[in-house]
Amino acid sequence: MNKGDLIDQVAMNLNTSKTDASKAVEAVLECITQGLKQQEKVTISGFGTFVKRQRAARTGINPVTKQPISIAASTTCGFKPATALKAAL
């Protein structure tokens, strides 16, 4: 399922237009993004927890030249599913 499919499903479930469903999906995604920017995690009860994670700097290998390269430290997002979501799968 991609973002367009998700918007279609939300529109169908809410019996609303795709434009309104798109706004709703965008609003939820924006709230999750802002929550992660301001805090370390965003928890959605019954679904899961989005967490901000730090990746340490490391050395990698350029696949073309096989030369070592340094990869800078970065911040990424992780997801831990809730028990209810795991059970549903």
Which helices and strands, and how do they pair?
Blueprint: H1 3-14, H2 18-38, E1 41-44, E2 48-55, E3 58-61, E4 68-71, E5 74-81, H3 83-88
Antiparallel strand pairs: 1-2, 2-5, 3-4
Helix pairs in contact: 1-2
Quick synopsis:
The protein is α+β, with helices and mostly antiparallel strands and 89 residues long. The chain has helices at residues 3-14, 18-38, 83-88; strands spanning 41-44, 48-55, 58-61, 68-71, 74-81. It is 44% helix and 31% strand.
Report what the structure shows.
By secondary structure, this protein is α+β, with helices and mostly antiparallel strands. The protein folds into two domains: 1-38; 40-89, HU Protein, Chain A (Irregular). Helix content is 44%, strand content 31%. It contains three helices and five strands; from the N terminus they run ααβββββα. The chain has helices spanning 3-14, 18-38, 83-88, and strands at residues 41-44, 48-55, 58-61, 68-71, 74-81. The strands form two sheets. It has a three-stranded antiparallel sheet. The protein has a two-stranded antiparallel ribbon with strand order 3-4. α1 (3-14) packs across α2. The chain is elongated and about 55 Å long. The model has no long low-confidence stretch (mean pLDDT 93).
What gross morphology would you assign?
Answer: elongated
Euclidean distance between termini CA atoms = 15 Å
Portion in strands: 25-35%
| Helix/sheet category | alpha+beta
Give the helices and strands as they follow along the chain.
HHEEEEEH
Could you give the order of strands across the largest sheet?
1-2-5
Biggest β-sheet strands, sense, barrel: 3 strands, antiparallel
CATH architecture of the largest domain: Irregular
* Mean residue pLDDT: 93
Quaternary state of this entry equals: single chain
List the domain count as a whole number: 2
DSSP summary: helix tally: 3
Report the C-alpha radius of gyration, rounded: 18 Å
Helix content: 40-55%
CATH superfamily of the largest domain: IHF-like DNA-binding proteins
